[in-house]
Design brief:
The protein is an alpha/beta fold. The chain is built from 16 helices and nine strands.
């Protein structure tokens, strides 16, 4: 692969407050910020030595290790990557100002979405603490960011993240070029730091990414706080309907979700959707598109980290049905890439990993696979 450049790395940053992790971009392997360094270098959060060096490598046509994790390794297999979906005008200044900031306040979350992990959800963390690791080498926490970079973080120890949060608020005030802020989690509606960000960044465009995994009273409290600020909108995480929705986003109920969507709409707050695309979400993505695309913008994000959840790890009939269901009017850039990804070969090892994962996922949650087509379940060989 000769084209290694990505403009995202020159203008966007994702920050995980609780763990002091910096993702540049959100698909890249993160670095842990040194709080003493940041205190001595105010305004430089987006220009750590590691970030500057990675950008220089890109400009020299060389692959940076941090980008192997979320993009390059998938592109080498002919699969869709986030980098392919969001190409933009080339930037050549390694000190280009930060334009878009994503803030993950903590991993507090009530849901265990099928493609998520302990890194982003305390509900997932509780599952693994109670029931043990999933018996898949690729899925073990020992191989992901949770244990490698979070080893000293306790679930309820907020002293470090509070210090970093104060420094982060200072960074926002020192970076006037920031145009957009996205707040995510976990579930950001559970975190009281959310109000501080909303109140100090009133001149920015702010998106709150939420799975709506809170009760209606909590949701009303948030909407009452932001309904008069037209710069603030919701980006709701979802990619299926009915039973598929409830399976993928375990802990949420479809009818309750629809009621919350209607409530937000009635406040006048703008709603968009963020849909994560994987093999198991592919069974609901077209019905979700049909229900919401004419009224709301939908942004698509290919699953990362787990090769057995990639969209090409499907039986032949499921692939054919998915490709046949993608209509002509859906031939935007994402769906064209999805067609290409779905058509790629998969290994039997990936099929077996998917089988083990779904068997374990359903057993721990007392779920059934009968919401999926019989030919898909048969192909998984789950007994």
């Amino acid at each position: 692969m000769s084209d290694v450049y990505c403009s995202t790395k020159f203008k966007e940053l994702q920050v995980h407050v609780q763990s002091r992790l910096l993702y540049n971009c959100c698909k890249a392997w993160p670095e842990r910020i040194d709080l003493d360094w940041l205190e001595n270098n105010p305004g430089k959060l987006f220009h750590t030595p590691t970030m500057v060096a990675d950008r220089q490598l890109m400009l020299e046509g060389k692959r940076s290790k941090s980008c192997e994790h979320g993009c390059y390794q998938y592109e080498d297999q002919g699969l869709t990557s986030a980098r392919n979906l969001y190409k933009d005008k080339k930037i050549i200044d390694v000190y280009n100002p930060l334009e878009t900031l994503q803030i993950s306040l903590s991993n507090d979350c009530n849901l265990t979405c099928a493609y998520c992990s302990s890194e982003w959800s305390t509900a997932w963390h509780r599952d693994i603490k109670k029931n043990g690791e999933y018996p898949i080498d690729e899925y073990n926490n020992k191989n992901d960011n949770w244990s490698k970079l979070w080893s000293k973080i306790k679930q309820r120890d907020r002293s470090t993240d509070t210090k970093f949060f104060k420094l982060l608020c200072n960074e926002i005030s020192l970076n006037p070029h920031i145009k957009n802020i996205t707040i995510l989690g976990g579930e950001p509606l559970l975190n009281n730091h959310l109000y501080k960000i909303l109140d100090i960044a009133t001149d920015k465009k702010i998106k709150i990414i939420s799975g709506l995994g809170v009760d209606i009273q909590k949701l009303k409290k948030i909407t009452d706080h932001i309904k008069d600020n037209k710069n603030i909108s919701f980006q709701i995480s979802a990619e299926g309907t009915g039973d598929i929705f409830e399976f993928i986003r375990y802990g949420a109920r479809w009818n309750d979700f629809l009621q919350k969507i209607d409530y937000i709409k009635n406040t006048g707050i703008i709603i968009e959707f963020l849909s994560v695309i994987s093999n198991i979400t592919s069974f609901g993505i077209v019905s979700f598109y049909d229900m919401f695309s004419d009224k709301h913008k939908i942004t698509y994000n290919p699953v990362a980290d787990r090769s057995f959840l990639q969209s090409n790890v499907l039986d032949d009939l499921s692939k054919k049905n998915l490709l046949d269901s993608i209509k002509d009017e859906m031939d935007n850039k994402f769906f064209l890439q999805l067609k290409q990804s779905v058509s790629q070969e998969y290994s039997d090892s990936e099929r077996k990993k998917l089988s083990v994962f779904l068997k374990e996922f359903t057993k721990r949650r007392n779920l059934k696979l009968d919401i999926f087509p019989d030919h898909f379940v048969k192909w998984l060989d789950i007994k």
